[in-house]
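Example record used in the benchmark description.
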Amino acid sequence: MTLRTKFFALFALLAVIPLVGVGAYGFLRSKRAVEALVATQTAQIVRAAARQLEDRYAQHEANLLLLARNAETQRLVEARRSGDPSAIAAARSAAIAYLDDAWRALGAGYEWIELRDGDERLLHRMGGGAGTAPAAPGAGGSARTAWLTLSESIEEAGDPPSGGTVVAAVIPDALLPYQALESRFGASGYSVVFDRSTGRVLYHPRHAYASRTLAELSGPAGWDVDPSVFEARQGSFTFRETDSTRVAYFRNLDSPPWTVLASGSVDEFGGPFAESRIATLALILVLTAAVWVAYALLARRATRSLASLTDAADRVGAGDLAPDLPPVGRDEVGRLTAAFQLMVTKVRESLEQMEASRQMAAVGAFASQISHEIRNPLASLQLNLQGLQRDVEHGRIPPDLARPVELSLREVHRLDGVVSGVLSLARPRRTDVKPCSLHGVIEDALQVLRAQMGAAGVTVHTSFVAARDTVLGDADQLKSVFLNLLLNAAEAMPHGGDLHVATGLARDRRDRASIRVRVEDDGPGIPAAHREDVFKPFFTTKKGGTGIGLSLAARIVEEHRGALALAEPVHSDHGTAFIIELPAVPEEVAS
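Model output (structure tokens):
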């Protein structure tokens, strides 16, 4: 994939997809807002109609309870149970008078009411019989396609008790709250009531639907919804009717087992949301322009930085390890630039280390090959010079030859030291690694040089504040490092001075603890021109020095996974300071 393709993909990801999402979200939000409005209003209609219907049903239950609990009805049932004709006649006469008055007061809401004894035998009937033909459709378009039968037991004391039952056929029109059902939301809104026990439509504003079943009303020719949607206690659903999208809200009643439903048209109320769509479109256009400007600026910046970075990579490939890099920023290109800069630095350091290692390997190979050739003559010269020195001491050789013999013997020792140092740098050493106290190692080195420093007027100041001083390493090799540093410091102060040795704990970015040792003198210091060369083999500013000590010390510290570096002095404005950092052994390991 080309860079241009990636940028276009990035633009699609950051601009096109979000903008399409905003547009789709605005459209769906507008549509759902209308649906929510219709659902809320139809829910209010359903709740009002359901509350009135439940109140009316409760009133009919109260009427039946009144008929079942009055004294005349209970005496009639008791007389029927006794079987005494005269008692039955008297009780019937008294009950009929009461029941006829009750029928005149309550009968408008019933098709008929029957009193039955405990054996379901008819005691008295008010109104039409069970075979009465259905009446014509009533107000609002309902039809008496079925009666709603209610019953209430007649509690009658006796031994054993044998009560009866009051059974009533309630006219649906007496229960339906037409005023609430005829209220609607919008010009095309309407309400429906159907009986779940029979599946018949009890109320519909269109007479053609009043005699249909629920399956016909909700089927493919009607709402085209799954009848299982009505299994919930209440809820809403969306359906299509003719060319309009409608939202319906329903509620299932327990008594009677009817469902009240109200619906409204979504399309009828979509117009007021046109302003919202225009605002959304304007927002999309503004957002598109802003994203385009931002994309152009970012693409230009990224391309320019990438071009500079590519040029720098070409220069590095050609061998230039110090190329000009673009400014390091906080974006991905900036991070890439920083990583590239770090990589170039690491490569340069690695090449320098490889060159140093190659030189040391060559020196080591050369030293190994000629060590015998040099040391054998040196040994012979040393023996002969020592013999001459003894002859001078015994007077067998003129005394004026004593000084040349002494100087020759000293140079032989120096040459032997140089060969030994070169071999030490080139050959790997066996390290006896084990936990050791760094403070103890420093104290041992100071003890060895204490007399020499005292004679030279050097005052040693120690400050061992590191709470932990255990490191993994070879104590003898570490002691040689500190001996070298301390001896160099003492030699830098031939007329006396102060030598500071301090320890402390330090932590790296990964929170790993290390022990930091600072060795500082107040001598003349190291010239700025020589500071980068002090650790190079054979580099020395001391008369008669070999240039092996510091390079060997640095290598020993590196083999102990530490670092030896030149630092700025803190106790004076001159002098020399070295810092050694060695990894601290964890407390649980040290203990």
